[in-house]
What we know:
It contains three helices and nine strands. By secondary structure, it is α+β, with helices and mostly antiparallel strands. The chain has two domains: 7-47, no CATH class; 51-118. A hairpin with a 5-residue loop joins strand 8 and strand 9 (99-105). The chain is elongated and about 50 Å long. The mean pLDDT is 88.
Amino acid sequence: MLKETKYYTPSIEELYVGLECFYNGKPHKIIDYNNLSKDSLKHITLKYFNQEDIESEGFTFKKRQALNPVLYFEKERFLLIFNSRTSTTELYHKEHFFSVLFRGTVKNKSEFKKLLKQLNIN
Length: 122
């Protein structure tokens, strides 16, 4: 793996019902927003987005440029380019002249899953 797994404490705005996170270091899923407080936020961490997260959503690793943090993945009609140093992610539709579907930063796996759902990529 290119980038060691790192975690961060999210802001309150990043939390939502259904978010997969870690609470006191253990896997957790937020099921009720009413139980969240600023005090509980101190115990919640999220894993930064990485290659493992991309592959867990059905994308297949294709190549990496030598001495470069840029990774290429494919899934059906889609090409995903991921910079493992900056978490910059680009998603293209291969059958439509490589039209850009998304270009930006994905911070964690839950954000990525929401993005795929919004783009109707199963």
